[in-house]
Amino acid sequence: MKKPDFRRWRAAALVGIALTGVVVTGPSAAYAGQPARHSGDLDLRVAVGVNGVDTVRIHAERYVPAGKVRGVQVMVPGATYDHHYFDLGGGGVVSQARQAAREGWLVIALDRVGTGKSSKPPAASVTTAVQVASIDHFVDRIDAMYRGLPIALVGHSYGSVVAEGVAARSDKVDALVVTGFLYRRTAPSFDGFPELVPAATDPVLGREKFPADYLTTSPGSRKFFYHLPNADPATVAADERTKSATTAAEVPGFTEELVGRAFAKAVRVPVLVVVGEEDYLYRGNDPAAFEPDQRSAFAAAADVRVVLIPGAGHDLALHRNAPFTTMVINWWASSAVA
């Protein structure tokens, strides 16, 4: 693991000012608003070696800044999402990946196993152990490709659980950003969570020939992931058009980490936790316990910072205030890997 200068980033990482609405300092002049390009596909075959899965192909989309590069952000989407969560593409909708690239990051937004253009083993084999092992080896390949650049893992929802698992075992990860996932003393409510239906019969995914027993959200139900007063209907519609799949075998990994915290306990690198104030996972939580609970969960981490984003639901990257959320993440990550 590369050693960041903690004195430099500790002062800069006071991103809790997001709670008060104070305007933060923007990116430095060396990076602010620089051009960036979407350089297209990146496909890597990596080893797995668990649950009967030997190797898989991981597909990703790459976004490259035109000028000086701060480091690499590897973005890991959640259940029923692929890389499109970080870049819905076109139509004026927000793009966390493109904004991060404009702010100086080389961005790798991937499709987890079982989603997008990545390998789709039998559904029973698409477990959290497979996700963690495959992305761990994927990060090794990225580190070899971009030798010397620090790596920040950025997860969302179930993708945050996977990113935690990778950060817990990898010596190539320098910082971890957890979004849409948190630890709490009381169980969260899943009331209203979308029904999961067979991907093979879904109007969007049916033509993609998913293997048997892959699942996705029922048509028109993804608004659950939004605080609708702060969401553009065009974004919600684009989300439905680009949705992906999950499997029942992934669910235990999410629950086990929420309760047992095994990955979090093993993370040593700096951690930023970002959650929407209207996220269903945060609903009913004691606000005073939010920060202490995250610090307790990541007890061995070099440092832990938490930010609650007003007016945002579960899909932080897809709300109208997503550019602010992304700026906070990029600012913190830049300081954490400096």
Automatic annotation (TrEMBL):
<dbReference type="Pfam" id="PF12697">
    <property type="entry name" value="Abhydrolase_6"/>
</dbReference>
<feature type="domain" description="AB hydrolase-1">
    <location>
        <begin position="74"/>
        <end position="319"/>
    </location>
</feature>
<dbReference type="GO" id="GO:0003824">
    <property type="term" value="F:catalytic activity"/>
</dbReference>
<dbReference type="InterPro" id="IPR000073">
    <property type="entry name" value="AB_hydrolase_1"/>
</dbReference>
<dbReference type="InterPro" id="IPR050228">
    <property type="entry name" value="Carboxylesterase_BioH"/>
</dbReference>
<dbReference type="InterPro" id="IPR029058">
    <property type="entry name" value="AB_hydrolase_fold"/>
</dbReference>
<protein>
    <recommendedName>
        <fullName>AB hydrolase-1 domain-containing protein</fullName>
    </recommendedName>
</protein>
